[in-house]
């Protein structure tokens, strides 16, 4: 596959002003997949200027809400119409199994555009019962302006869609900046927006690395940054945004606890936790990564989940039986390897996995599903985000300590509880500090449900009506009727 992609700035696809390019690689083979324009500060300036012009272009600014809705619905139709091609591209560029690309990434991308197409005609203001005599007051919900949408490499298309759709539904213009490791489906999404009739300048797309990202977050004509990625980068974005006090939404790291109560269905918990931990090879911010298991059930749980993990087929995302694909890069393989070594050094027991497979997979960025037992709360593998297929099993005797142990982390994105008892479920759901708590299920997402975290897991909420709040400003209008 020989792909060459440029930048979308206004109505034109152009190379980087400097002529710079970078290569994106197939993580299943380590081989080059395509060459992509590497945007610099000058290109970001041009893209932001195009977005600023698009914001006042009557073709967009005066477009009736129903027509804007039809454009978003049209994007969803095009995503579905190109589903096979897009899913294959996502798998080649990111590594996720083709079934995940089709049933999770593509399906969610189309669903979120349809969901926010419905919101276009429902963004409403209110009248306020002010106490000033002879005066009427009402509010308007207006677009924030130019939005920088910076997306990660783990679910490139899906996360770009869940940022882009609400931003457009609210009438904003955007500059998309995908992660340099996985740019291809985001570029394809920008192309589909133009095909769906979204006016020139409304959706711009710059590919590149930290230079482009930093230029966007610091840009004085960017009004809003929506970022999904690491907590470390998120903190730098907060500092960069101070220049013009731009609005910021951050969806950052996680270290999700999964609590397996004494009365839990262990077989269901094993199946659900394995899927919740190893989706996309564990490269999920809400992945279940630390398992608190009742001490009377911990041996059974450990044996069953380690056996099941070791039997999962590891292979290329395009393989028909693959359950666990490659990690996204050699850098990520090295990161996971360091944490596995650290787990052993700190005294955890390596039950299964722990290394790279050989043979036909030796050239790809693969890592075996890895299960540790005997983990304690102070170990690095129990505290730090690994972003790979590493499962840490901790035991507990006193259920009253569970919430405190689960909350003993800087993160608060997601958590899970496995129990047959409703009282246990509701009490733990209320006590755990996390943006989403799942009971007896996988960490599912839906366009109608808010998504975001506490603490170092970020600021604000994406999806649902909450995204409408994040992408609009409220204006008060006072009318003297006297």
From TrEMBL:
The active site is at residue 251. This is Aldehyde dehydrogenase family protein. Belongs to the aldehyde dehydrogenase family. Keywords: Oxidoreductase. Residues 13-476 form the Aldehyde dehydrogenase domain. InterPro entries: Ald_DH/histidinol_DH, Ald_DH_C, Ald_DH_CS_CYS, Ald_DH_CS_GLU, Ald_DH_N, Aldehyde_DH_dom. GO terms for molecular function: oxidoreductase activity, acting on the aldehyde or oxo group of donors, NAD or NADP as acceptor.
């Amino acid at each position: 596959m020989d792909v060459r992609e440029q930048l979308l700035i206004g109505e034109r696809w152009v190379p980087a002003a400097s002529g710079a390019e970078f290569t994106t690689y197939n993580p299943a083979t380590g081989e080059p997949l395509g060459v992509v324009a590497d945007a610099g500060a000058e290109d970001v300036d041009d893209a932001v200027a195009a977005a600023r012009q698009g914001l006042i272009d009557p073709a967009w600014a005066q477009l009736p809400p129903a027509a804007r809705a039809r454009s978003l619905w049209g994007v969803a139709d095009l995503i579905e119409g190109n589903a096979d091609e897009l899913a294959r591209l996502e798998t080649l560029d990111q590594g996720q199994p083709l079934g995940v690309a089709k049933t999770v990434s593509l399906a969610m991308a189309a669903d979120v555009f349809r969901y926010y197409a419905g919101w276009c005609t429902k963004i409403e203001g209110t009248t306020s019962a002010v106490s000033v005599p002879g005066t009427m007051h009402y509010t308007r919900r207006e677009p924030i302006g130019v939005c920088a949408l910076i997306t990660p490499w783990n679910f490139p298309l899906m996360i770009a869609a869940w940022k882009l759709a609400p931003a457009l539904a609210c009438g904003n213009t955007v500059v998309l900046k995908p992660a340099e490791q996985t740019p291809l489906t985001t570029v394809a999404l920008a192309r589909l927006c133009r095909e769906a009739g979204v006016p020139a300048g409304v959706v711009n797309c710059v590919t590149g690395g930290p230079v482009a990202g930093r230029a966007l977050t610091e840009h004085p004509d960017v009004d809003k940054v929506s970022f999904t990625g690491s907590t470390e980068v998120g903190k730098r974005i907060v500092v960069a945004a101070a220049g013009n006090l731009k609005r910021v939404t951050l969806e950052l790291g996680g270290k999700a606890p999964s609590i397996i109560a004494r009365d839990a269905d262990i077989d269901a918990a094993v199946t659900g936790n394995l899927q919740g931990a190893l989706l996309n090879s564990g490269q999920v911010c809400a992945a279940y990564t630390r398992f608190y298991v009742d001490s009377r059930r911990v041996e059974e749980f450990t044996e069953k989940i380690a056996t099941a993990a070791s039997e999962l087929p590891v292979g290329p995302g395009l393989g028909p039986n693959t359950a666990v694909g490659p990690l996204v890069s050699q850098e990520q393989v090295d990161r996971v390897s360091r944490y596995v070594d650290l787990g052993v050094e700190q005294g955890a027991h390596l039950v299964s996995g722990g290394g790279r497979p050989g043979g036909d997979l030796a050239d790809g960025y693969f890592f075996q599903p890895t299960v540790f037992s005997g983990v304690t709360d102070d170990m690095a593998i129990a505290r730090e985000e690994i972003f790979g297929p590493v499962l840490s099993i901790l035991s507990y005797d006193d259920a009253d300590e569970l919430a405190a142990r689960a909350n003993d982390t800087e993160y608060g994105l997601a958590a899970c509880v496995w129990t047959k008892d409703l009282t246990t479920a509701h009490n733990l759901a209320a006590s755990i500090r996390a943006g989403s708590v799942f009971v007896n299920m996988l960490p599912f997402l839906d366009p109608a449900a808010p998504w975001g975290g506490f603490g170092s897991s970020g600021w604000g909420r994406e999806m649902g009506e909450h995204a409408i709040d994040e992408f609009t400003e409220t204006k008060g209008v006072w009318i003297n009727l006297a």
